[in-house]
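A.,

Following up on our hallway conversation. Structure tokens first:
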């Protein structure tokens, strides 16, 4: 099984002690976000965890703990954007994140260190020209440290619209996506970085951008050296190219405070949840409660008992 760590929060940035405690204990409890009383027990044995996919905006805190992952296959997706603290309110300065990105790549290799430049938002202070100029600067800094950049254009969910009510943002139509996508591809080519698009309805293949699989069966096959027999993740949008995985995160727990984030509903809920975090607990927020029902998740390796790839 593939472990997603995590679409719902930034575990590498904020919860590394908890995460490695769970690896040591060999299991984690995950609340069903749609049914509070339903809890899954997820086994973390390396024999059934085929690969761990980390999502983060700051890998600094995990850099000194990578040896604790020696029994696991894994790769990282690191979001490095150009927004200031009006939009990414608590994300560390790029002068901290970029060196950490490069240090991670030097340790685990550029193929397992993927850059995310998403979501792309056009505002009164960050138009297309500004994005392209800053994308060029970031590409130059990350050249040689990654071979892939995953982009997306912002999806304005209802809570995103509410959170961004104080930001003057501009609509992005299909033609603008293609124009901007083509320019980003050209920049990426100059720095050896191929672009893919995450869950975009607009077909950008004409400008050289294919659909991304953020939880990528082909990449996992290369990392593990074995073919992966996995289905599309039915819990994601139809356009999403990810294969099935188990996410061990929790919504309303990320301290980055990005206004565009779909995973945080309100600052007050995040603040209350953070007070309940215990690095020694088997679940990210709080602990088991008397009314909870725990069901052990069926864990099956997606690559075991297969012929090793040459």
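Then the amino acids I'd put at each of the 310 positions:
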């Amino acid at each position: 099984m593939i472990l997603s760590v995590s679409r719902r929060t930034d575990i590498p940035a904020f919860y590394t002690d908890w995460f490695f405690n769970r690896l040591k204990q060999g299991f984690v409890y995950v609340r069903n976000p749609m049914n509070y009383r339903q809890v899954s027990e997820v086994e973390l044995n390396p024999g059934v965890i085929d690969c761990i996919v980390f999502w983060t905006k700051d890998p600094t805190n995990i850099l000194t703990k990578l040896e604790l992952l020696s029994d696991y296959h894994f790769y990282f997706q690191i979001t490095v954007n150009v927004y200031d603290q009006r939009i990414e309110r608590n994300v560390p300065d790029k002068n901290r994140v970029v060196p950490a990105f490069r240090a991670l790549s030097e340790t685990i290799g550029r193929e397992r260190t993927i850059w995310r430049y998403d979501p792309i938002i056009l505002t009164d202070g960050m138009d297309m020209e500004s994005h392209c100029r800053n994308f060029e600067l970031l590409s130059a800094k990350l050249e040689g440290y990654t071979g892939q950049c995953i982009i997306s254009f912002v999806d304005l969910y209802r809570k995103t619209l509410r959170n961004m009510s104080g930001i003057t943002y501009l609509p992005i139509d299909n033609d603008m996506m293609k124009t901007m996508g083509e320019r980003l591809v050209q920049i990426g080519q100059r720095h050896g970085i191929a672009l893919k698009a995450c869950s975009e309805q607009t077909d950008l293949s004409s400008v050289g951008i294919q659909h991304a699989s953020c939880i990528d069966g082909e990449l996992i096959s290369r990392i593990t050296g074995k073919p992966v027999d996995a289905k599309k993740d039915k819990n994601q949008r139809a356009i999403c190219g990810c294969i099935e995985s188990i996410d061990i995160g929790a919504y309303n727990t990320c301290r980055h405070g990005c206004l565009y984030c779909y995973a945080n509903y309100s600052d007050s809920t995040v603040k209350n949840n953070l007070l309940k975090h215990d690095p020694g607990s088997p679940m990210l927020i709080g602990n088991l409660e008397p009314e909870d029902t725990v069901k052990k998740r069926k864990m099956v390796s997606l690559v075991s008992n297969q012929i090793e790839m040459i």
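Residues 2-286 form a domain with the pyruvate-formate lyase- activating enzyme fold (CATH 3.80.30). Curious whether your intuition agrees with the design.

B.
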